Amino acid sequence: MNEALINGYKAFLDGGKTERECVSLIIENARAHGYRDISEFQQLKPGDKAYIQKMGKAVALFQIGSGAIEDGMNILGAHIDSPRLDAKQNPIYEKDFLVYLNTHYYGGIKKYQWVTIPLAIHGVVCKTDGTTLAVNIGEAEDDPVFCISDILPHLAQDQMQKKGSELIKGEDLDVIIGMEIPPKSKDDAEKDGKSDKEEKAQKDQGRKNLLALLKQKYGIEEKDFESAELEIVPAGKARDLGFDGAMILAYGQDDRSCAFASVQAMLETEAGARTTCCLCVDKEEIGSVGATGMASHIFENAAAEVIARLPGGYSDLTLRRCLAFCNMLSSDVNAAYDPINASLYDKENSSFLGGGIVFNKYTGSRGKSGASDANPEFIAKLRGAMAKADVSYQMAELGKVDQGGGGTIAYLAAKYGMNVIDAGVAVLSMHAPWEITAKEDICQAFNGYKAFLRI
């Protein structure tokens, strides 16, 4: 067991609960290993190490090989976003003396899993004077935490008759962030000489008090929420799971387990003839859309910046040839076999906790819809590399054929004509607020990614 790797992984999970936090940690680590921003290079030569970031939420690391860039690169591609709740742009309201943060859930979640657990708020608030305030509330021991309430069992007869998807409505995933003591009774208020207008004003006092607190403590005005990006995530650190400590329980392991292992493999592997790349993108959980998602031109633009600084300069044909001859591991997680729910899996084609890095030839759903289907020649090459490096691996699918399915960024890389296959860590309780991985699999993924970069 690589204890240093595992300790680093848990620290990464604790410090990187949003895409922005992950990018900051990755760049800090990369710079410590000799990487520099691409803008610091006028020309690139073999051995040079550069990174390109996009909007603080996606980043690509490149190490220049000795061979021609037209021969392609070896790429590790992961995503660093995870399911969560996002604050709306006009989020703070009071209802019957409780103050709430209005949210919109992000990604595929089971909404009922997010109630009654301690939550933290991470993100940024961008002000009109050009300053940006980093927000991280709920992680320190003396921080407050936040929570979504649920119906007590004594009154939940109607709720318990509903389907799981209907137990909690999306609009009811609002987070309690404060309260106000209710006013005196009407009779007492009249004795005090308070008017109906004064009574109504008092009912909104909790919201006003909270906004005043935010201004005093954090310098945040109510209008600043219009240009804020606040993510509500489970509060707490990654923990060892089980008496044997063989597993990790933490938020965001899909897909930060693969992102961390990919970045570490990249930092600890010297490029040979082929240029190597580690790409960490955003928005995979909602379809890889947007300027920082894989469906944008983010990767080809980054590759073009590299090519422009190489001898011979940029040409569209060089870029197209480079992309077409790349090899890529779409570093993404797979569903771990769940013995309690065995009927959902084809056991012979499932991934197991502790079984090593998982190769998934195709994803998609029901008839491989939306899948990228890897070529067997490429898989054979990977098998040879894993055997040579003594890496444990398993071939698997997500679940039974008609049971469901899912997708990754693999199909978006495959559109360039490159070889690509999903390769990552098995996760139990995927997309839950707290997910489970095996330490052995983190280590094997790290070793597997290093072996791939040397192909």
Most strands sheet: 9 strands, mixed
Major sheet: arrangement of strands:
1-2-3-13-4-14-20-16-18
How would you state the average pLDDT, rounded? 94
Radius of gyration: 25 Å
Count, helices:
11
Gross morphology: globular
Description:
The protein is of the alpha/beta class. Helix content is 27%, strand content 24%. The chain has 11 helices and 22 strands. Helix 6 (253-267) crosses helix 11 (439-453). The model has no long low-confidence stretch (mean pLDDT 94).
Short description:
With 455 residues, the protein is an alpha/beta fold. The protein contains eleven helices and 22 strands.
Layout of SSEs?
Layout: H1 3-15, H2 19-32, E1 36-37, E2 49-54, E3 58-63, E4 73-79, E5 84-95, E6 98-106, E7 119-126, E8 132-137, E9 175-179, H3 186-191, H4 196-203, H5 205-218, E10 228-234, E11 239-241, E12 247-250, H6 253-267, E13 275-281, H7 298-308, H8 316-324, E14 327-330, E15 334-335, E16 357-360, E17 364-365, H9 376-388, E18 393-395, E19 405-406, H10 410-414, E20 419-424, E21 426-427, E22 435-438, H11 439-453
Parallel strand pairs: 1-2, 4-13, 4-14, 14-20, 15-21, 16-18
Antiparallel strand pairs: 2-3, 3-13, 5-6, 5-10, 6-9, 7-8, 7-10, 11-12, 12-22, 16-20, 17-19
